[in-house]
């Protein structure tokens, strides 16, 4: 079994410890394409058999579908044997016209409309709904989801006020009562990491795009601020939403859209160094983010068993020290980036 599945790291100063590798379940909500139930079960079976014991989901993933699927699987496993996180800030409700409802951006998912609500009552309702969809009576931590201007535009200030005025109190109460062991915030971009994330006393941040093998702009700002405050990080998109698995050819998804030419060019540069050192690109992507001292876990997604198996194998793939030094010398990663010890 991979050491990344066995080694536990403590989240901030909380009682929660997480393995270095977990399972992100956005794909179970049918992010890029529909996933049938047999493939869902096979994928989760592969993860469990490989030793994966940390799972992350959200109401937004497939408009409730990911939580339903993940909960249906995990409720038959001993609760003490796995860690589970989900997210708050959205509640789901029946659309006025289900027959003509647009589920986008999900390829599949469920017919539920979304209401953003970061107030005390909104957080509590989101939490209660999540438990019902999961068919479980506990989660280990909650994540404030998608509180950034890319989602909310001119409503951003109002939603931030909701959270700061009362929503945080809900999370603090749930933590104090023992309902959850920790709470954090999902971060999609550098701006959110440097603004709203600094205004809440968080245990961790679930960082999607701002820290990957392709982007270390946050290293000396947002990530450094978290480190100074003792806030842990879970990396939610180690493959930058796809391109660090597929490479510069193929679909080349980056930041949940088509990769721009400059990103594809950067990936081609990294691919050349990978070829020179016989290193697989996905292995480099996973191991790179885990080298940062405040990163406690990485949670790549998967939609089929082979993807889980490949991700687990990437954790322990040997990567020589010269690979990392070449990336730095060619300015393909920040020269001050923490990197794994070569092996």
From TrEMBL:
<feature type="domain" description="NADP-dependent oxidoreductase">
    <location>
        <begin position="22"/>
        <end position="328"/>
    </location>
</feature>
<dbReference type="InterPro" id="IPR036812">
    <property type="entry name" value="NAD(P)_OxRdtase_dom_sf"/>
</dbReference>
<dbReference type="GO" id="GO:0005829">
    <property type="term" value="C:cytosol"/>
</dbReference>
<dbReference type="GO" id="GO:0016491">
    <property type="term" value="F:oxidoreductase activity"/>
</dbReference>
<protein>
    <submittedName>
        <fullName>Aldo/keto reductase</fullName>
    </submittedName>
</protein>
<dbReference type="Pfam" id="PF00248">
    <property type="entry name" value="Aldo_ket_red"/>
</dbReference>
<dbReference type="InterPro" id="IPR020471">
    <property type="entry name" value="AKR"/>
</dbReference>
<dbReference type="InterPro" id="IPR023210">
    <property type="entry name" value="NADP_OxRdtase_dom"/>
</dbReference>
